[in-house]
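Narrative of activities, Objective 1.

The group set out to show that a structural description can be obtained from nothing but a protein's sequence at a throughput compatible with the screening campaign. Below is one input-output pair from the validation batch, recorded exactly as produced.
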Amino acid sequence: MLDIRRLRDDPEGCRAALARRRDPAVDAAVDEALALDRRRRAALVRTEALRAERNAMSDEVARRKKAKEPADALLAELKASGDEVKALDVELRDVEAALEAIVLGLPNLPHPDAPEGDASANRVEKTWGEPRPAGSVQPHWDLGVALGVLDLPAGAKVSGSGFPVLRGQGSRLVRGLANFMLDLHTREHGYTEVSVPYLVSRATMTGTGQLPKFAEELYHVASDDLFLIPTAEVPVTNLHRDELLDAERLPLAYCAWTPCFRREAGAGGRDTRGLIRLHQFDKVELVRLVRPEASDAELEVITRHAEAVLERLELPYRRLALATGDTGFSSARTFDLEVWAPGVGGWLEVSSSSVFTDFQSRRAGLRYRPAAGAKPEFVHTLNASGLAFPRTIIALLEHHQQPDGTVRVPAALQPYLGTDRLVAGA
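Output recorded for this entry:
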């Protein structure tokens, strides 16, 4: 959530920054927010003035009654001012609710270093590994069936499209990837592993920016007003909601393995074959809570932690710096990691690492005290997928595919699968 004081004190600077997102609706929303803020402050000033006047009148009424002097006119005036205060209180509540709704719908200010433009301006920052030629291997949807690890019809029968079933070595691969990633992040990268709920409250979804803007993309249990998590970022970032943290505890680093649930309204027909786009999938998520002055450096740290997974799995990837018009609603700056899938014949996003500055922490009330006696400040939050499983599995099957139809298991993953090769019928 943007700081309304920043909008008020530097409206043109905020407009210029938000204009980099290429969303024409944002400028009108800023106008509306500033108008509501002016109404709110005017109502507050008038209310405080009336209350001061009422206090003085009440004292005068008491004095007159004690002196047995007439006070009828003053009492009538006191009643009228009381009615006005009540009306102003109602107006203030309405204005504050409208202002909050507008501000909650404004995206984060993009980072100055983010490339300018729409998705076509996304910039390749680095590449790693040697991609196999496109089309040189079977796509994973054919290979997975041949190996007996992927059963899309069973998933469709049980739940519908976008809900795959993995069998045998495929199921073991999911479990092995989870343990491999969690061990790497906890033992070498310093994260604390947490197991979190998969259903969360409206306040939790609002804290990380999923609500109110993305309500249509979420699975909602209306009877309990709970939401299935679209990513572990949501519950993990909210672990310290409304807390005041000691500076010595920062940075805090958490990782979690959870299923993720996404309706992705409007996504039908795009990249729907195989495991490319799903409504339910597993992911290991990384979350960091840091001091504001450290957040730029921490973005590189968390991105490297995600890249390390791909390097251990021997999968070619590239890092993209997302342009301002392609950066997510809550993010100030994002690096996408795309893995090469030769059977699909393209680069697939397997991780997004983002810094949110104080956007999420304002919504979630996540603060820290920089020093003893210092005024509390909002922490900066970051997260990254470390990694999402479906496209990692796509790349593993396709990139490590052998001429005999088997799949070589990278050395780092072999202890978790108990084999060096995926073969049909295993």
